[in-house]
Amino acid sequence: MKVAVIGANGQLGTDVVRTFTERGHEVSPMVHDDIEITSIESVRHALVAIKAEVVVNTSAMHHVEHCEQDPSAAFSVNALGSRNLALATRDSGTLLIHVSTDYVFDGKKASPYVESDAPLPVNVYGNTKLAGEYFVQTINPRHFVLRTSALYGKHPCRGKGGLNFVELMLKLARERGKVRVVDSEFVSPTPTTDLANQIEALSRSDAYGLYHATSEGSCSWYEFAKEIFAITKTRVQLEIAAPGEFPTKVARPTYSVLENQGLKKEHLNLFRTWGDGLYDYLGMAISSTVPVHS
What we know:
By secondary structure, this protein is of the alpha/beta class. The chain has a domain at 2-154 and 189-215 and 258-272: Rossmann fold, CATH 3.40.50. Helix content is 39%, strand content 17%. The strands form 4 sheets. Strands 2-1-3-4-5-10 form a 6-stranded parallel sheet, with helices on both faces. The termini are far apart.
């Protein structure tokens, strides 16, 4: 298939390009110089030239604080940009795979969110991503909207300052010898390689719709850090930080665990546990079972 990947130089986009290429697809990596998703003219021109059968949108304005400071820009990229892609792909009969976020929820459920749960974003980023979901779902019937959580990959995330959580923990351990991490916020850490693998598989399916797409199981950020240090045998003093010890300027959900209910119902779920994904990311052989928070 001919596949266009938008945001191809990002943390997720890089692995999406690699995965589709390795599976024998003809891939057109697209970056900001190739396409401006806030312009419908740019989107139509770029996609017409490629004649892609599948468009994967990994681009977004990710930085939560920047979104809060400039909601108009965030809406232009995350919502109107998604609308432009949905319009252009609908008109050409192209499949659109759109990546969304766990931040569409407020984090107060305290049990894994499923696709049928009502979204309730607590910040601008979440609201604009939710608006993008609605545009895609209501405009192009041939769509996959994938909500994911706590992504990390080998390629730096430019929109979030470069270092993912794994690399940040290892850096702080080297530099300080002591790390404090909160144990009151829960996620499903998801490697970009695993999400890219799921995206490629869905590109060959016609079970269109909204899906949660994260690693199996969940953990607190503290538990995640603890496993990072255990796998790498890093000597560090790891301590539990008090809730609110690291105040943020923007409200965020404290419970961001998603259940891949839709993928499992369609027998399409390819995700492994977050622990297995972490072992693979760190280049280690899996020799033990990683405990998960339930």
